[in-house]
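Subject: design request, 203 residues
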């Protein structure tokens, strides 16, 4: 939720000539309503840094995807654990079957989630990111092993494992089960944002 105080503060900053944007794990669909309300004046950072996109022009300035050589074993490992997995591909979110976790994700992010059955068979090109949704204690238990097995492959670019925090305590106050997330996303150790700065300065 964007409060009037937040909107006013952002507008004040922009009036001083400052570029303002958002950095989020969301898809274009999920991020656009917030970007529009905040009237950002610089490219948005999506997918935990996996894409930098000019939302107004509909142009991707930078994009990194998880190699299939990493994505496929990751999907197999999470499937063997019996945990639900969201796969982000071509701006959309896919799951094997709808679960309470995917329903929670939809309600939280106002983003459509499509069930496709066998994810490994469906995903035939590198995804932007993958998200495990489960009880936080389970994710805390799994994260170190996933980090060791899948993160940081390659000399300059590699997947990153991180917690996606918004759901970790959100529903506790209402007596509902806690839900958290662990993300596998691609990143570039060469700081891809640096190559975007000249484009921002031209705006």
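Subject: RE: design request

Done. Sequence follows.
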């Amino acid at each position: 939720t964007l409060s009037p105080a937040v909107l006013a503060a952002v507008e004040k900053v922009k009036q001083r000539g400052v570029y303002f944007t958002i950095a989020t794990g969301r898809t274009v669909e999920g991020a656009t309503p917030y970007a529009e309300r905040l009237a950002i004046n610089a490219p948005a950072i999506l997918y935990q840094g996996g894409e930098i996109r000019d939302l107004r022009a509909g142009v991707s300035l930078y994009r990194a995807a998880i190699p299939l050589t990493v994505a496929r074993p990751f999907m197999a490992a999470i499937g063997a654990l019996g945990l639900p997995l969201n796969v982000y591909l071509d701006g959309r979110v896919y799951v094997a079957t709808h679960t309470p976790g995917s329903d929670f994700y939809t309600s939280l992010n106002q983003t459509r989630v499509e069930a496709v059955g066998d994810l490994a068979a469906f995903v035939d090109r590198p995804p932007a990111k993958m998200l495990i949704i489960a009880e936080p204690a389970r994710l805390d238990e799994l994260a170190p092993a996933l980090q060791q097995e899948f993160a940081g492959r390659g000399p300059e670019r590699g997947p990153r494992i991180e917690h996606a925090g918004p759901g970790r305590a959100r529903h506790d106050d209402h007596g509902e089960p806690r839900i958290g997330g662990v993300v596998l996303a691609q990143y570039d150790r060469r700081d891809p944002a640096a190559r975007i700065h000249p484009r921002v300065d031209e705006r």
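The beta strands are 44-46, 51-54, 59-63, 85-89, 92-95, 113-115, 129-134, 157-164, 180-188.
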